[in-house]
Specification:
heterotrimer; A: Rossmann fold; 18 helices; 24 strands; B: 367 residues; alpha/beta; Rossmann fold; 2 domains; four-stranded parallel β-sheet; 12 strands; SBP_2_dom (chain B); Sugar ABC transporter substrate-binding protein (chain B); Bact_Solute-Bind_Prot2 (chain B); Peripla_BP_I (chain B)
Chain lengths: 515, 367, 432
Amino acid sequence: MSDVPILLEMRSITKEFPGVKALSDVNLVVRAGEIHAICGENGAGKSTLMKVLSGVYPHGSYSGQIVYQGSESKFSDIRASESAGIVIIHQELALIPGMSIAENIFLGNEPRKRGAIDWKAANRMALDLMARVGLQEDPDTLIKDIGVGKQQLVEIAKAFAKDVKLLILDEPTAALNEADSRHLLDLLRGFRSRGITSIMISHKLNEIEAIADQITILRDGRTVETLDVKADGVDEDRIVRGMVGRELSSRFPDHTPKIGDVFFEVRNWNVRHPISADRQVCKNESFVVRRGEIVGFAGLMGAGRTELAMSVFGRSYGVYESGTIIKDGKEIVLKSVADAIDNGLAYVSEDRKAIGLNLLDDIKTSTVAAKLSKIRHHGVLNEVEEYQAAEAYRKELRTKAPTVDEGVSKLSGGNQQKVVLAKWMFTDPDLLILDEPTRGIDVGAKYEIYGIIQRLADQGKGVVVISSELPELIGLCDRIYTVFEGAITGEIARADATPENLMKQMTSTKKMATR
Amino acid sequence: MRKFFGTSVVAISAAAMLALAGCGSGRDGDSGSSGEAAKGFAANSLIGVALPAKTSENWVLAGDLFTNGLKEAGFQGDVQYAGASTTVADQQAQITAMVTKGAKVIVIGATDAAQLSTQVAAAHAAGVKVIAYDRLITNTPDLDYYVAFDNFKVGQLQGQALLDGMKAKKPNGPYNIELFSGSPDDNNAGVFFDGAMSVLKPAIDKGDVVVASGQKDVKQTAIQGWKAEGAQARMDQLLTSTYGSKELDGVLSPNDTLARAILTSVKGAGKPTPIVTGQDSEVESVKSIVAGEQYMTINKDTRNLVKETINMVKALQAGNTPQVNDTKSYNNGSKVVDTFLLPPVAVTKANAAEAYANDPKLAPLTK
Amino acid sequence: MSRLKDLQKNLFGGTTSNARQFGMIFTLVAIVLIFQVWTNGLTLRSDNLIALFQQNSYILILAIGMLMVIVAGHIDLSVGSVAAFAGILVAKSMTEWDLPWPVAILFGLAIGAIIGAWQGFWVAYVGVPAFIVTLAGMLLFRGGNQFIGNANTIPVPEGFREIGSGFLPEFGPNTGYNNATLLLGLAAAVAVVWRELRARNTRRAMDADPAPMWVSILRMAIMVGVIAFATLRFASGRVGTSFPISGIILLVLVIAYSFYTRNTAGGRHIYAVGGNSRAAELSGVKLKRVNFFVMMNMSVLAALAGMIFVARSAASGPQDGNGWELDAIAAVFIGGAAVAGGIGTISGSIVGGLVMAVLNNGLQLEGVGTDKVQIIKGLVLLLAVAIDVYNKSQGRFSIIGSLMRPFRRDDPAAPVSPPDAEREPAKAAVSG
């Protein structure tokens, strides 16, 4: 490999923010035509490093050298780096939903003819670019009408429109389902064979193992090591060791479930889509939860798991049609979120930042937000009780924050998730529904969250976990339901759960109970 | 602990308050409220002038005249205009600020003559003399003097000119006319209208003159805020509703701005120019009169009005009682205000050159 | 650590975050002092202070309601028109229908509530953006004012004028001051001391060390000193004048609404809705009810402000309320509220409103014309918010914006500052 010319070298990059050293003395060597993965826990400095490279943090705001294509580069902004062929695709896609694919691809870079945009040429070039990324759509299709997977491809096509030499992808598969992820990884391999260099940041270690040539691991803003995947025989555990600086004996804490009787049951649940009323998003679904049990819901993206959870949680999604909820032997009617909370339900949402937390709040305010009545006496909120509650959960969940006065926006993903968990634990729920509880959370924090989930179950609560990561469901849950196109297609006990098994039922309407 | 807590709270705060209270008081009893004008005041005192927003040239001119006139008389002048949108509140604050600054006399051209009584009262309590300029401030016993043109007379002149003008153009009636009046929140608007009607009413009753639209009530004829666009819109609407086939002979307009708006509307509708009255001798209207469009205006020479006002201030400074010529007619709702009235002059094309001979801005227009 | 640094840390908080909350107050104090010098002492003279409060109480009352509307993520453009509409009806009710003035005040508040319910209905239950609903309301109620009043000015009776131009009564022995104002000041001083001592207890209950006793005493001394200064100023005005009734109404509202927004569930819900409405809804907050309440509350306060202005002007006129919405909105934003909602405090808005008021007053005392005053006010608004935005974008301290948090959550009398050793350096949000 060492005979391949070096495309990019970042030498002792140091970047400081007020009060914090985000990067110190980081080195990165990327050779032409390879896929180079950058790994590290949240806060390790991966995104910061990429922002330095792409000119978001301009030359002069950091120390160190960037040598690109053999000469030192001093990018003053993103435009400068893009004109040198470095294109970064962020986790949050930068597409305009109301514009067409072609319009998005050429946004800010429109082909012109005598001052006016030449749409004929644009569409022709767009088709060409789309073919290169394997996207078969009409270039006039609006972005909002295509799935996330295809949107990701549009982003990459957009990069090609800028004549990319070095493609940087930040968590490209985070929002994609298995099939789309596979397609994207294949695409990256194709680019490699055509000599395009890629840098990829990802939390999905299996993907990194499968695709990367070189892996650079960052920890606490420093370079830990660079591994050659083939030569060093790298596997997932090896990467994890580098990231956390210790061996993780197991990805899940040991746990012996103490399962009691069925206490929560949903029967024949039917819900329609909030806007298109002819679309049924929950089709006659029924499930049960026992005390002390962790129940998983497996399914592909768009299978309707979140829709099911939210419609049960006080009809906070869709239009309720029919179905009953039975708790502790009695039928309950939950017409609002307040009803659901009062009846001991809690829902930890899939998207923490968008709908789970008020990012303007601090930890203590967030902690008590869903049950203010607990700290209210004669209409007045008691600040001392608020503080004490938040502090107790901070200690119990080991949330990393100097005090509970810290704003939640300053916390890492894992710690934000702990605050959300604290918020719902504070409501004293009997049933917790956790939607993608470990999305975007690094390995160490995941382990802790699993532990918290198990402790909650051991306290006699029922826990429902919705996850797109099959190993997580298999490792954590006592029982797993599979969902496909708005219907429950199977129920698999822990002992029988294998990825193949689950995948089969997640993709077929045929019900095969293997209880 | 509890008990100590409570006691200490009161003790600490009381001690602190007393310590500071002991520093002594400078409370200035009820100074000035008796208002002994006879004493007069220093010759270089502050004189406040609060005028409405700069919506007509007249107010701008008045402001300039006050600034210069007060300076020449040796006073410190503080001339303020209200803002264009927040008029009343601005003027209230300005008057209060003038009192605070220690003005000895405040001259007020009110934006809303009924909404200043609190400020006038505060000024009076602080021993400041208040002169209402051009608009009578209502509902306050604390107003000292009023200086204005004889507005009833203005209306009479307008009414008479309207009749004369129509007769000169078309010897025999009946004549079709329309009536316009000024902003209902301006006390003068009603006075103009009443003056004009005192002349027109007999003719209307006789049938010589017809208000073809039937809109004779002041509520129907009023133009809010003296706004030109309001007058134009009303005229447009009258032409469409009433003058499809009829001929419009004359329009009673209370001032020049409205007169020109009315003429614009008539021209826009392609009708022959009627006899239109006016007031204020604005530059554009004088041009219009010389060109034979607007029929008449009133010359209320702002120079004279400002001069008389400054004379009053001078009299007050010297400790004398200012000269007034009407102590009966102007009741503002709380008292009869001592008033100095100036006579207005009606100006048509015929006497324009003579009337404006002394006006540096208007005289050249008449040649 | 030197004694001086220690003092500074304890008084204003050692960390930047605690120092911030004083930024706006410093700005206000600076403006006051600049004008005090420039106007040769007129600014802080008792008659001017009294006038300042009387002239601005209605705008500040609007700012209270507007703050809540803006925090919830809306805007209200109709307040001036609603104030004028309520004003003319109240004036008519007294002069033409002979309602006694206390009943007329209740009548005015009821009108505000009805208008508020109307606007709240469209915003909360139909989902029309507040900008549109209140733009419509602005036209609707302005027209209503002219329609009902025939664009006339209608005077109001003496008793009613008290709420706009009245003062605390004179009574008791001749102390050379207004005794009622002295008592009010004493009560305020007691409240401040009580608060400080209570805050120390609260800190103890939160397992944190309260600041040293001498710091508390110094802080109390400063606050009591300021209160005493203000009290004596207000109490030593010309006989017959003292602390204005409209100022008392404002004071009561500020205290009540500050308490409401900070210490009750309803107040929390407003911030939650503005910060992230979906998250709030999923936490059990009744979104529609909160939106309805803030809009309705705003109109009630607008009606009150309208009545106070009418009382002060002794008459209701067709130009009442012109441009008030802009003054109130400016006060709220200068006071550090976020355009997107979720951030802002009552006290911040009041300080923001006072900055504008003092600026206005000071420039008027200097004889600067309204044209230039408007230009200056426009620039101040733009600058205040721009500096804040710039500082935020630079990741540096935001002078006004971040005032909010301490104002809102903590006790402003007790900046929370645990010893530095316990504090990790605040980590900037660096995602990796």
